[in-house]
Amino acid sequence: MELHLAPLENVSCWAFRSLYTGASDSYTGMLSLTNLTKRATTWEEVDTFPIEGQRQWIQIATAKETECATFLTKLEEELQKHPEKDTIYGIQLNCSCPSPQLIRLGQGPALIKRTTKVGKLLRELLKQTKYKIGIKVRLGLNEYEVAQRKIITLCRELEKLAHENANFTNVTIHFKHAQEPSSKAYSYSLLNEIASFKIPLIINGGITNEKDIQRVLAHIEPANRKNIKGIMIGREAMKNPNCFLEMNQEAKSQNQETRIIKNEFKALCAQHQPKQIYLTTIAEKTKPGLFL
Ligand SMILES: Cc1cc2nc3c(=O)[nH]c(=O)nc-3n(C[C@H](O)[C@H](O)[C@H](O)COP(=O)(O)O)c2cc1C
After folding, report:
1. Band of the pLDDT at 285, cuts 50, 70, 90?
2. How far is the CA of 233 from the centre of ligand 1 (A)?
3. 204 lines ligand 1 (CB under 6 A)
4. Which of 91, 108, 115, 159 could form a disulfide with 197 if both were Cys (CB 3.0 to 4.6 A apart)?
5. Cα 149 vs. chain centroid, distance in angstroms?
6. What is the pLDDT of residues 209-220, one digit of tens each?
């Protein structure tokens, strides 16, 4: 089972991601392709310096195929200038961020109902073969779209894409619609049906430990479980940087020492200093003294 550290905007800089021993995959926070294609400074946030044992993804937001094509060209230019960042495993399209500003631009969860558009964006990204491609999506933009089963229609398109192209390797589903507050309990009632599609599924939402994984998997009939590639954790990781280590027996047996996260984080920041916004957000959103 793959263990993914969730993309966390203005939090998941290289130093932060590097703390998560035992995670198989990690992501940058969401990066706007409009910014990446127009502003040189945004490339500082593509901080994909090596992290042992982790496959690193860049998460992008866009609704334009032309931006995808320009981004792929600029990415190669950036990596030629900074070969030390040339460790990227994949690119994930964000169809999940609930920001009204993003939705107004037709990006993020506004794309869930636009099956053809999502297919075109992903096919544009799949024109290259160096990077795996994935998508992070919610159950719908709102309650109405959940009732309309928009996610099921999208899964049908994603299944076609997975069949067409082996580089499409990651469909992460955050099991909420975009208007549900983070405090609301998760409903996994659609999980079994979603898992019946032949798509490489990563389950996200409300998972904190091994017991939660088993509780979520119990929604899936045994025949559909083969489509589950992994799980993704966000908020619990911000509380417990050992959460993946605790689930990954192999990593756990190799890392028995008590960790002082704050000291590790300081040393990592000294290697690759994140932008100030990352430090401010980490200080605001995590327990005082844990990271900073
Ligand atoms: C501080 C914060 C920042 C987030 N930033 C992003 C982001 O950039 N891209 C994204 O797809 N999801 C983002 N999310 C959502 C998480 O990736 C994840 O889907 C959500 O927290 C549910 O998982 P969890 O229950 O394990 O926390 C963010 C969540 C938090 C708490």
Report:
1. very high
2. 8
3. yes
4. 159
5. 23
6. 999 999 999 999
Q: Is 149 in the pocket of ligand 1 (CB under 6 A)?
A: no
The predicted pLDDT at position 249 comes to 77
In this predicted structure, what is the pLDDT of residue 248?
79
User: With pLDDT > 70 as the criterion, what percentage of the chain qualifies?
Assistant: 100
Which pLDDT value is given to residue 254? 80
pLDDT at 255: 76
pLDDT at 67 over 90: yes
pLDDT at 60 over 80: yes
Q: Sign (positive/negative) of CA torsion 197, 61, 110, 212? A: positive
Dig out the tokens for 57 from the structure.
């993804």
Q: What's the fold here for domain 2-285?
A: TIM Barrel (3.20.20)
Report, as an integer, the average pLDDT of 246-272: 89
Indicate the domain borders of the chain.
2-285
Does 205 sit in the ligand 1 pocket, CB within 6 Å? Answer: yes
Alpha-carbon distance of 117 to 123, in angstroms, equals 10
* Ligand 1, atom nearest to 94 Cα: 11
